Hints:
391 residues; 11% strand; 60% helix; two-stranded antiparallel ribbon
Amino acid sequence: xxxxxxxxxxxxxxxxxxxxxxxxxxxxxxxxxxxxxxxxxxxxxxxxxxxxxxxxxxxxxxxxxxxxxxxxxxxxxxxxxxxxxxxxxxxxxxxxxxxxxxxxxxxxxxxxxxxxxxxxxxxxxxxxxxxxxxxxxxxxxxxxxxxxxxxxxxxxxxxxxxxxxxxxxxxxxxxxxxxxxxxxxxxxxxxxxxxxxxxxxxxxxxxxxxxxxxxxxxxxxxxxxxxxxxxxxxxxxxxxxxxxxxxxxxxxxxxxxxxxxxxxxxxxxxxxxxxxxxxxxxxxxxxxxxxxxxxxxxxxxxxxxxxxxxxxxxxxxxxxxxxxxxxxxxxxxxxxxxxxxxxxxxxxxxxxxxxxxxxxxxxxxxxxxxxxxxxxxxxxxxxxxxxxxxx
Length: 391
């Protein structure tokens, strides 16, 4: 079946055409009712005429003189009752017939047009109570209202997804906080009871738990501020290649301590790669990606960092030769707390989520792909600065 054109898909056009069609149909029904009643009256009048008058009237009508003076004389002589009263009765009967039909058709058209709105209002009341299981019905038309209903349902899908993520986030945060707090509480009680000696080694163990809590709270704050669009950025023209070179020099010893071979690839001839970013946030992106490799892909013994320009973008990629992404992270690699509940990771579990949030906050994007040689490659794309900014 052919779909109507874009103009006919507009709800106000369809509503107007439906009302116009209803009015025309009602007028036609009224005219038909009047004509039918008039025809019935005429037949009764004709049968009441003497035979010779009937023949005379037929002859006049055949000659096209049905409105002539002789016809009017016949009507005046033989018509029983008021002629105009009969017309009024025919009009009244026509209105009595057309009014219910017009009301029924009008309500039916109104119901079709407003049904999606009524469905949206009902669903909105359920959503306001926290029930995300219902969806609005777009009806049988394919117009602006149906498109609005679809977007409305998409909004509910987003709200439902956000509610689930919020609950999962709360559960993950409580789990991540509970473990180090339980360790701190137990060890501090043991120190107070004299079971454990408060020596340097024990103090270091307690400090490690406190630092983990600090990193977790800091990462949560960074992530929430970035997603709310309130993360402060001090942007300016930066040579991405030089920034990456300096940042990796700072982490060279840590990379070496993990037995990793660093393979740094920068543009040939030392050509700068100018981007307008916050250098501290870019360092944080690079640091989180490197730490992710050190924590989960150190067995590969290789860390590759590339800086290049592709398709009008600056590209920073961090690769490894490890086992690749685990199955539970392949569909949503940048999810918060990706490790299963009860399994403590080396970091806060927010590193990759922060990478994505910081990249998007600076008009960039990040994606992950599997390397043919094995391992993973995280690719961060940032918009290049203009020539003027670079100068």
